Design the sequence.
C-alpha cells in the first residue's frame, strides 16, 4: 500500500513535475544488485521493507533520500544522511532495468538525517484544568446548571453557592477506562488501510469519538453515552475516558465508511486540540498505512488490482463499437419501417422485423458478456474522494463576554461579528435555550458553525497552521463566489437566449398559419410520419427556412432515424 514500483514512481514524477517522493537506496541486495524503494506521495519507505532487504544484503551501504524529475527531464536525488559512493551508478542501473532512464541523474548535496519519525515523541495536550477530578464528582457540569428546586415544587435561579454545592456531588461523574477497557477501545489499521476494532471488525459506518495516545501512537475510539447504576448515579463517556484523563496527541471525531476514513475533526471540548495536533494525527495515521488518499477501490471498498482495472477497460473498449453497430442498425431498420411501412409487403415487413430482433439479441448478449467488467468500472471509485479534515472554530465567548450577552442571540451575534471580523450572523435566532444558557455548550456550537473543511492533502500542506489554512479557505471561497456568479450570469444569458428563440419560433409558426411545430412542418412539405419524430435542430431549421424538408429527411436517414 505504501510503496510504488519504479515505473509508476517515474510516471508520477513526470506527470507532476516538482513532485518529491521519499526513497531508499541499498548498494546490493542478497544477489548483489542495487535496490531503490520509492514510497507513495507523502509517505515514507516502511522500516519493515528496509529491514527485510538489509538483513540479507551483500552490500549494506544505504541511505534515504528524496527524488524528483526536474523541468528538463533529469532525475534529482537529495541524499538524507551519508550517501553511498555507488548511489548514482546504482540508481542508473535500476532505472535502466525498468526502462525509465532519465535525461541525466543529478545527486544533490547531502542533507542531515532528521530524527527518525518512530523515535520522535508526539506532541500532546493535557486535559483542561476545569475537568480535574471529573471522574470523582460533578465538577465542570455544575457550570451548566441555571436553576435549582425552590423547595415549594417549583424552581429558582441558581446562586454561586448552589453551583459550588452541586460541583462537589458524586451523582454524575466521567467514566475513566481501566487497562482492559482501554485495550478494547484501541484501533488497528489493516494492510488495506482500513480501521478495525479490537475484535478485528471494520469500524461501523458512522462518526466515532477518538483520541490518540502520545506514547503508543494508537487511536482509541469511544461512543458518547451515559451509564446509570442501581442507586441512580450516572457515569458519562467523553474524550477523556479512553486514556483516563491523561494527555492526548490528538482528539476529535473520525467518520468511517467500510472501514475507511471519510472525515477527521478536532471537536473536543475536553482537550481543545490545536490544528497542529490534528495535523499530527493525520500524518501519523498516514504513516501507519491508513488510506487517506484517492486510492481506487471497488463497490465493497477493497483496492482494485490495476491489472483487473485495465482488463475491464480493454473488454469494454472492444465491445463498445459492436454495441454501437447493433444499436445503429436497429434504429436504421426501425426508421425504414416508420418511413416506408405502408409501402412494404408483408414479407418485407417481417424480414425487417426479424433483422431488428436479431440485432436486439446480439446487443443484449454482448451486454450480458461484459456485465462483470461494467460492474467493476461502475462500482469503482476513489477510496475517500479524498478524506476530509474538519477544524472546529477556536473563537468563543469568555466568561465576561458571556455574562454581558447572556441569553441574547442578537447581542452574541453582534459580538461575534466584531470578534471574528465577519459580516454575517453565526447563531440562528431560534437557538435552543439549553445551548444559549450554557457557555461550554454555546462555545461548542460557535465552533461547530465556524468549522473549516479541508481535504487531507490540503491540510498536510499547511503543516497544522490553522491561520494559514483559514486565510487560504477565505481566498478559495472568494474565488468560488466569483466563479459561481459568472456561472449564474451565463446560465441567465442562456435562458434568455432560449426564451427569445422560442418566442421567434412561435412567431414563425403563427406566420405559417400553423397550430404547432408539427403542423408547421407538414405545411412546409414534411410527411406527417416524419414530422412527428424529427429532431428539434432539424425541425427548427426547416421552420425558419435554413434547411429544405428534403435535406432534413436525408439527414434523418444518415442519423439512423
Sequence:
Amino acid at each position: 500500500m505504501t510503496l510504488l514500483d519504479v515505473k509508476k514512481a517515474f510516471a508520477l514524477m513526470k506527470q507532476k513535475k516538482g513532485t518529491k517522493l521519499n526513497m531508499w537506496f541499498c548498494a546490493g541486495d542478497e544477489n548483489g544488485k542495487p535496490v531503490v524503494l520509492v514510497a507513495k506521495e507523502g509517505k515514507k519507505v516502511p522500516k519493515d521493507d528496509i529491514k527485510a532487504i538489509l538483513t540479507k544484503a551483500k552490500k549494506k551501504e544505504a541511505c534515504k533520500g528524496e527524488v524528483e524529475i526536474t523541468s528538463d527531464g533529469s532525475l534529482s536525488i537529495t541524499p538524507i544522511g551519508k550517501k553511498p559512493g555507488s548511489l548514482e551508478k546504482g540508481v542508473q542501473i535500476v532505472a535502466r532495468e525498468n526502462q525509465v532512464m532519465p535525461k541525466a541523474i543529478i545527486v544533490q548535496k547531502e542533507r542531515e538525517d532528521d530524527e527518525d519519525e518512530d523515535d520522535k515523541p508526539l506532541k500532546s495536550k493535557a486535559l483542561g484544568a476545569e475537568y480535574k477530578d471529573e471522574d470523582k464528582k460533578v465538577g465542570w457540569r455544575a457550570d451548566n446548571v441555571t436553576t435549582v428546586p425552590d423547595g415549594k415544587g417549583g424552581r429558582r435561579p441558581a446562586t454561586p453557592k448552589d453551583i459550588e454545592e452541586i460541583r462537589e456531588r458524586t451523582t454524575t461523574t466521567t467514566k475513566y477506562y481501566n487497562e482492559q477497557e482501554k485495550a478494547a477501545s484501541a484501533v488497528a489499521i489493516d494492510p488495506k488501510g482500513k480501521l478495525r476494532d479490537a475484535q478485528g471488525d471494520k469500524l461501523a459506518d458512522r462518526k466515532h469519538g477518538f483520541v490518540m495516545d502520545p506514547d503508543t501512537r494508537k487511536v482509541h475510539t469511544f461512543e458518547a453515552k451515559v451509564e446509570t447504576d442501581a442507586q441512580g448515579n450516572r457515569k458519562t463517556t467523553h474524550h477523556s475516558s479512553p486514556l483516563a484523563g491523561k494527555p492526548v496527541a490528538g482528539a476529535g471525531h473520525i467518520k468511517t465508511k467500510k472501514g475507511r476514513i471519510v472525515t477527521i475533526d478536532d471537536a473536543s471540548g475536553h482537550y481543545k486540540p490545536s490544528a497542529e495536533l490534528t495535523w499530527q494525527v493525520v500524518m501519523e495515521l498516514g504513516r501507519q498505512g491508513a488510506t487517506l488518499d484517492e486510492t481506487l477501490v471497488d463497490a465493497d471498498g477493497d483496492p482494485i488490482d490495476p491489472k483487473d482495472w485495465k482488463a475491464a477497460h480493454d473488454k469494454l473498449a472492444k465491445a463498445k463499437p459492436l454495441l454501437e453497430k447493433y444499436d445503429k442498425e436497429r434504429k436504421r431498420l426501425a426508421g425504414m419501417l416508420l418511413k416506408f411501412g405502408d409501402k412494404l409487403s408483408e414479407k418485407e415487413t417481417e424480414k425487417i422485423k426479424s433483422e431488428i430482433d436479431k440485432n436486439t439479441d446480439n446487443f443484449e448478449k454482448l451486454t450480458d458478456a461484459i456485465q462483470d467488467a461494467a460492474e467493476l468500472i461502475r462500482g469503482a471509485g476513489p477510496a475517500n474522494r479524498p478524506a476530509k479534515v474538519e477544524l472546529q472554530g477556536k473563537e468563543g465567548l469568555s466568561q465576561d463576554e458571556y455574562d454581558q450577552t447572556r441569553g441574547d442571540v442578537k447581542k452574541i451575534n453582534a459580538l461575534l461579528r466584531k470578534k471574528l471580523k465577519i459580516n454575517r450572523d453565526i447563531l440562528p435566532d431560534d437557538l435552543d435555550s439549553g445551548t444559549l444558557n450554557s457557555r461550554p455548550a454555546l462555545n461548542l456550537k460557535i465552533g461547530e458553525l465556524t468549522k473549516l473543511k479541508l481535504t487531507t492533502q490540503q491540510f498536510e500542506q499547511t503543516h497544522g497552521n490553522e491561520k494559514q489554512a483559514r486565510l487560504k479557505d477565505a481566498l478559495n471561497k472568494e474565488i468560488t463566489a466569483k466563479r459561481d456568479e459568472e456561472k449564474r450570469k451565463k446560465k441567465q444569458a442562456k435562458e434568455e437566449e432560449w426564451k427569445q428563440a422560442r418566442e421567434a419560433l412561435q412567431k414563425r409558426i403563427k406566420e405559417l398559419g400553423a397550430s404547432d411545430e408539427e403542423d408547421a412542418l407538414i405545411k412546409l412539405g414534411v410527411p406527417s410520419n416524419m414530422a412527428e419524430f424529427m429532431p428539434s435542430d432539424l425541425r427548427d431549421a426547416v421552420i425558419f427556412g435554413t434547411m429544405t424538408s428534403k435535406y432534413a429527411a436525408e439527414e434523418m436517414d444518415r442519423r439512423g432515424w
Observations:
- The longest strand covers residues 59-69.
